[in-house]
Write a structure and sequence with these properties.
CATH topology: TIM Barrel
Mean pLDDT: 95
CATH architecture: Alpha-Beta Barrel
Strand content: 15-25%
Distance between the termini: 13 Å
Shape: globular
Number of strands: 8
Length: 291
C-alpha cells in the first residue's frame, strides 16, 4: 500500500480572517511575509529534482489581494510548465469565484478548504465575521469549477458538543471530497484560545478511522497536529486509516517560525521522519499523486 507524500510551501502568513483558534489571524502582531513568484517556483523545482517530489501543497493565510493571486497564478503556471507530472494543491481560504477560476486555469489541481465545524453557531463563534453558509458556497464553487476538493473539521474546538462530531461526519457527504481530514484542536499560544485544553487525541483518531470507513477512496492526511498533541500520534493516524503525509521541506527555514499556524512550537516533520512512520505503518511513499 502507498501513501501520498506532499511538500508544503507556506507561501505567505498574511491573512484577513480572524479565526480565534489560529496564530496567524488578522490580529496577529507577527511580521508578515510573502514569497515571490521566482522564489516559489524555484523551491518547487529544487524539491522536484533533489527529492523527487511530485505533489506540492501551497498554503497561506486568506488573502484575496489581486497582487497576491496574480503572483501565485504565475508561479503555479511556471511550475506546471517546467515540472512534468506534478500535482498542485492550494489551501488559501475563502476567495471569490473569479480568483478560484484563475487558480484553476493556472494549473491548481486540488483545493483544500476546511469547514472547521458543521455547527453554524459554533462556526460563527470561532470565526468572527464569517459564516458556515459562506464556506459552503465556496466549497460548492470549487466543486463546480472542477477542482479535486478537500475539506475537514477540527476535533475538540471549545464549545464543540459530541453530537456535533456526528453531524461533522455526515457533513462530508455534501461534497464527496477527494480529500477528507480531521485535525485535533491545539490551543495556539497567540490565539484567543490560549490557555484552553487541547482536543482529545483519541477522539480525533477515532474520527479519522470513521472517515476511512465512510470514504474508502479518500485521501486522508495524518497531520502534524497529531504529533504535537502526543509524540507517536502521527504514526497512529496512519494506522487509523490515513494515507497522506506532508513533509515540511518547502518553506525557507528562516520563515517557519513566523508561520505558527496552530502553535509557536508546532511539529514540522521532515522526510526522514515521514519515511520512518510510513514504513512502520506498512506503507511506502508514492512516486506521485495517488489516483
Amino acid at each position: 500500500m502507498t501513501a501520498e507524500v506532499r511538500s508544503v510551501i507556506e507561501v505567505s502568513n498574511a491573512c484577513r480572517a480572524r479565526c480565534r483558534f489560529c496564530n496567524i489571524n488578522a490580529l496577529s502582531p507577527r511580521k508578515r511575509y510573502t514569497l515571490g513568484r521566482e522564489e516559489l517556483a524555484g523551491i518547487a523545482a529544487r524539491l522536484y529534482k533533489e527529492r523527487g517530489r511530485r505533489v506540492f501543497l501551497l498554503q497561506s493565510g486568506e488573502n484575496p489581494a489581486e497582487k497576491f493571486i496574480t503572483m501565485l497564478c504565475g508561479a503555479v503556471a511556471d511550475m506546471k510548465a517546467a515540472l512534468p507530472g506534478i500535482s498542485v494543491i492550494a489551501c488559501l481560504g475563502s476567495l471569490p469565484k473569479a480568483q478560484y477560476a484563475r487558480l484553476k486555469k493556472a494549473g491548481v489541481d486540488r483545493y483544500i478548504l476546511k469547514f472547521e465545524t458543521s455547527d453554524p453557531r459554533l462556526y460563527a463563534a470561532v470565526k468572527p465575521g464569517d459564516t458556515l453558509a459562506r464556506r459552503v458556497r465556496c466549497l460548492e464553487t470549487l466543486r463546480g469549477l472542477g477542482f479535486g476538493v478537500g475539506t475537514g473539521n477540527i476535533v475538540g474546538l471549545p464549545g464543540q458538543e459530541p453530537a456535533g462530531l456526528l453531524r461533522d461526519l455526515l457533513f462530508f457527504r455534501r461534497f464527496s471530497p477527494e480529500m477528507a481530514s480531521a485535525s485535533v484542536f491545539i490551543p495556539g499560544e497567540d490565539s484567543s484560545f490560549s490557555g484552553r485544553g487541547p482536543g482529545n487525541l483519541d477522539t480525533a483518531l477515532n474520527f479519522m478511522a470513521l472517515l476511512r470507513v465512510f470514504y474508502p477512496r479518500a485521501l486522508i492526511p495524518s497531520t502534524s497536529s497529531l504529533e504535537k498533541a502526543r509524540p507517536g500520534a502521527q504514526l497512529q493516524g496512519l494506522l487509523a486509516g490515513a494515507n497522506a503525509v506532508t513533509v515540511h521541506d518547502g518553506t525557507p527555514e528562516a520563515l517557519k517560525p513566523v508561520f505558527p499556524i496552530y502553535s509557536v512550537s508546532r511539529f514540522t516533520p521532515e522526510e526522514r521522519f515521514i519515511k520512518r512512520i510510513a514504513a512502520a505503518a506498512g506503507l511506502r511513499p508514492a512516486a506521485g499523486p495517488l489516483a
